[in-house]
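User: Structure with glutamic acid, tokens only please.
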Amino acid sequence: MTKSQENIRVRFAPSPTGEPHLGAMRTALFNWLFAKHHNGKFILRIEDTDQTRKQEGSLENIIKGLEWMGLDWDEGPKKGGEYGPYTQSERKHLYSNAAKTLLDNGHAYLCDRTPEELKLMRETQKREGKPPGYDGFSRNRKLEELEKSRKEGRPIVTRLKVPKNGNRKFTDSIRGEINFDLSTIDDFVILKADGMPTYHLANVVDDHLMQISHVLRGEEWISSTPKHILLYEFLGFTPPNYVHLSLLLGKDKTKLSKRHGATSILEYKNSGFLPEALNNYLTLLGWYPGENQEILSKNEIIKKFNLKGLNDSPAIFDQEKLTWMNGVYIRQSSTEFLTKIFHEELEKKLPNTVKRPVNKGILKKIVPLVKDRLKTTNDLIEYVDFFFLPPTQTDHTIIQKGVSKEETIKILEKTILMFNKQEIHQNFVTENIEKYLRNLIGTFELKTRQSLGTIRSAVTGKDVAPPLFDTLSILGLEECRKRIKNSLEVLNKQN
Ligand code: GLU
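Assistant:
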């Protein structure tokens, strides 16, 4: 029997032992989606009982990652809730109570083997070709003997008395029934010598006390589940429903690592990815929405999300595909939204010589010109910095391929003259600029690309820039004139 499916309560239970990586964030996302779809609760629980693996800053980064992805929790750190505290190191008494219950009902026992003795035991097992694992040395020893040992200062742990034979099974929502032979499980530690619980005990006690209905976690935890099933049984608790999510692999089908691109969610944040795109992409890694649809908003995903769509074959993470999807999200975003995030980006990245705050009015005009070209917001700066900062020019940055210096000077001088015409002077807008410039370059014996390229590089200093006539219009007549004059000075100076 497992927990009722009515009151959906799920949890994301990270250990603060490293960066918030993609696999963990996908687990968090699936839990969050499941809770949202069912109007349930999403709980954040910090599993920090292994103090030796704890990493400085890890918890803060996990929280930052979740917040950035918009995976808000209903109960947990910073938020509280009626089942708290939500950090395991603050719940020690609950685990020692559970261990005591197991000792009292004969399902656990104390053991005083030192780490050195255990090491020796494993070496002997290896030498004799026996399967590795705890040999049950203290299983039938008297409690008084072990209490005496404790007084003598030996490290005392509590181990679960795992039945020597028989089976246990559980139903996984994705994989169906999974059966385990108990003879393959040794008497594992539930409470360590320092009084801290192991992952197994703390996880079970908390899932029970926090009334977790479904455990959605990575496939790598399947082998731990029979241990958990035994703990539920011996503690008299009802286990939750299990959903083990498929592995996340790189394109070469090996475990996802740095070789396949950034693995921390915060690296994506800092490289100009939109959380909406990342959420969308991660959702498709192991879950099938039902139709061949790839671009789905968060609300659509919430509406469609169900356990039936999850599958057990490994999901392949493809950074190129994610980058493509990010570009789609940028293109689909509104000018208002992009102006806001591009503004933040430019405030951060433009040199200090550019006046702050960065001009939002101009940015708003630039956004429609550049948004189709960007794959990440990080690409923005190289396309648009010249709007805010006049380029540093040399002959090399101005003169186009196949155009002589003399021709370049002529094009620029004529452009300035044309800018002086009243018709254009008074109406310096895209269509008008285009009309006059096209007329002008018709008089040169050069390709359109070469003539317009000369004007573009004289104004922007770039080989690639947003559409020229719009660019000139946004910069305004005075600024264009100033920049072309400056380019002429550069060209003439080196004559
Ligand atoms: N603390 C475990 C982890 O770091 C949680 C596993 C589980 O969800 O049971 O992934």
